[in-house]
Amino acid sequence: MAKGKAKSGRDGGQGVQLELLSPASGARATAGKASSGKAGASKAGASKAGAGKAGAGKAGAGKAGAGKAGAGKAGAGKAGAGKAGAGKTGAARAKGGAKAPAPRSRAKAPPSDEIEVAAEAETPASEAPAKPRRKATAEQMAQRQREISVSEFFAKNRHLLGFDSPTKALLTTVKEAVDNSLDACEESGILPDLTIEIRAVPGASDRFVVSVEDNGPGIVKAQVPKIFGKLLYGSKFHRLKQSRGQQGIGISAAAMYGQITTGKPVQVWTKTGKGRPAHRLEVQLDTRKNVPVVLSDTEVDLEKDHGTTVELELQADYGRGQRYLLRYVEQTVLANPHLALTFLRPGADPLVFPRASTEPPKEALEIKPHPHGVEVGTLMLMATESKYRDVRSFLQNSFSRVSGGVADEILGNAGLKRTLRTQQLADDRELAEKLRQGILDTRIMAPSTNCLSPIGDELIRQGLISFLSVVEEEAEELPQLELLEKGARRGRKKAPVKTSEEKQAELEKAAADAVPPEPGEEIIKGKKFFIVSSTRPPKVYRGNPFQVEVGLAYGGDWPQDKTIELYRFANRVPLLFQRGACGVTDAVMKTDWKKYELQQPRGALPVGPMALLVHIASVWVPFTSESKEAIAHYPELLAEIRLALQDCGRKLAAFIRKRKAAAYELKRRSIFELYIDELARSLHEITGADREKVKGDLVVLAREITGGEETDEILDRVASNPKKRRPTDEELEAEEER
Ligand SMILES: Nc1ncnc2c1ncn2[C@@H]1O[C@H](COP(=O)(O)OP(=O)(O)OP(=O)(O)O)[C@@H](O)[C@H]1O
Q: Could you tell me where the Low complexity compositional bias lies (predicted)?
């Protein structure tokens, strides 16, 4: 869709943008003003310029006015030569502290954020303060108190939304747009066909254009400005249904980040059906008010019947961010086998992931809240908003799994009358408390699970196989995507000194490699992986249904001494950051993997050649922050994850033990066989017994005491698979000595 689109009006957008920037970005805007000469004019002028910039930080503003060293930094850094005068003056004042105007004289100036900071700057360090400093009065403070718009807040706290570095910003932007496209396609029953494109901006190494094109239902034109130019606006927040997005802040936050860092508006192409007009809009966000501003709206020709393309320019670090992007793309494909994806990257061949399954995911339906999850305040609010006059009908119609009989039981357990009015409940906290207790004392069926769409055992297995194929193809080491762990990873590359346990493990692997695949094993790119998965029945936390799935791949050529790879997913979205803060990681660490034949340092992830996939599907995933990178430590969730892990762990342990036992018996028989000739000869010499008979008897004995038929079976399979021959004794010995 992006092809052949008209691209105009960018300059206009930039002009308007300077007016629209939030205080945080105001630094850039006012810096421009300051360099046009305002700042150098006078102290007041300098202060003003500083204050204008200050949205980014009170300190920056105050310091600029007070002339502390920091002011020079803030002012000169942003404003350039024009501002240097102001900075210098300030600096001179700061040095000659005693000569500086007294705080009182400054107090005559209109109240500003500078009062406290200025007083501090002007008290010479050598003098003990004579009197307590003058503090701001309630009235002065009142003048400064004002509403903060949600966009102002998030412009300053962009890290809360996943925009804390240019590397992460790139990934977050792609992720938000892709999540939306997948959600929209799923909701309208379309098999998604997506193109992600990252383009370098000529002449600016730190700027990139991100474009995500989908074949979804499109967006009604009137909705485009609010979706892309207003934070906290969306279709998913108020409903209970599994979806990737849930907060209504993702794509508008990405657009805001792009606007703040480049001054460019987000561009959206959209078409809602065959024969309908397509539109291209340029949208900006007025961060002071959290309202959208449409810069242009043009009707355009689009070949396809329906879909949306979102394109925005942002400050980003593609060099560092590309491997995260790659990992995100691979894992998204893993968790969404119904997705066809093309990834166009700067300076590299396009990556094309065809659809692995034409089966769309099971449709997740919207449900009502479950009574067991409702809290008193919410109960009262729901009662206030209810159109049902009596509490019995209110319960039946506002909650899931409440029949007439269950409603009666709840009221009975609460000691309330069947005729109780909903309005009474809304007004009386005590009644609400009683009702809530009645709810908790009543056994109510678990919520319906048709609001969930798990990946499913078979698709997890399929997904892991195709994912491992991609991973095995990559020559590079597979790093766990955690920025903070970079150092640790580098360390891992150093040649480790092998312990005797590791040597034993290698020996077992060598023996096991000689054997054709066991049930549950898959050969991927010539390497054997044991793959197993487990799906837990749906459960509920705070009234929200959720379901946990775990998939595990063990083996291959992965090192024995490396921490396992942990892949976390929430509603089919890979979580790439904040692994340490995530409840999933905690659950994995608190599982006793030693029971399942893996090594595990105390309080850490297990060690071994294993990749672990944990997926949580829920109508409301409890993320630790708006950036949706880590899952909160809800005990119900953690318990379910552990149960799924234990289930997979048991299957893994059975596999490893069987493999170990077979390897051990093979080795024993081989050693025994090595001495049979010698033994038969000696026995013949000592007792005169027939040498060949003794040899035959010893072979039978060796067979009996080394696993009998089971070991024979393995040997037979080896014989029928000449490529995978059993290691010779010499090889085993040599291996052991190594
Ligand atoms: N490509 C798209 N096709 C159709 N609708 C879309 C598309 N992108 C966004 N939307 C609509 O815009 C809304 C806002 O999207 P946004 O990413 O801001 O929030 P969200 O997906 O609801 O939640 P979150 O903040 O958790 O990502 C969505 O709820 C959806 O209704």
A: 24-51, 89-112, 120-129
- CATH architecture observed for domain 371-440: Orthogonal Bundle (1.10)
**The two three-digit tokens of residue 723, written as one number:** 């490529």
How far does residue 177's CA lie from ligand 1's centre (Å)? 8
For this complex, say whether ipTM is above 0.90: yes
3-state SS, 137-176, equals: CHHHHHHHCCCCCHHHHHHHCHHHHCCCCHHHHHHHHHHH
How far apart CA 370 and CA 438 sit, in angstroms, is 14
- How confident is the model over 193-239, as pLDDT tens digits? 999 999 999 999 999 999 999 999 999 999 999 999 999 999 999 88
Closest CA to 182 of 356, 332, 359: 332
* Per-position DSSP letters for 34-76, written without gaps between them: IIIIIHHH-HHHHHHHHHHHGGG-HHHHHHHHHT-HHHIIIII
> Can you say which residues are annotated as belonging to the binding site?
180, 214, 235-236, 245-252, 628
Alpha carbon 664 to its chain centroid, in Å, reads 43
Residues with C-beta less than 6 Å from any ligand 1 atom? 176, 179-181, 184, 214, 216, 219, 227, 234-236, 245-252, 308
The whole-angstrom separation of Cα 15 and Cα 296 is: 13
Nearest ligand 1 atom to the CA of 248 is 19
For 153-353, the fitting CATH number among 3.30.70.2190, 3.60.40.10, 3.30.565.10, 3.40.630.30 is 3.30.565.10
User: Which atom of ligand 1 is nearest to 237's Cα?
Assistant: 22
pTM above 0.90, yes or no: no
- The answer to whether the beta carbons of residues 397 and 366 sit under 8 Å apart is no
Nearest to 418 by CA among 393, 396, 392, 400: 392
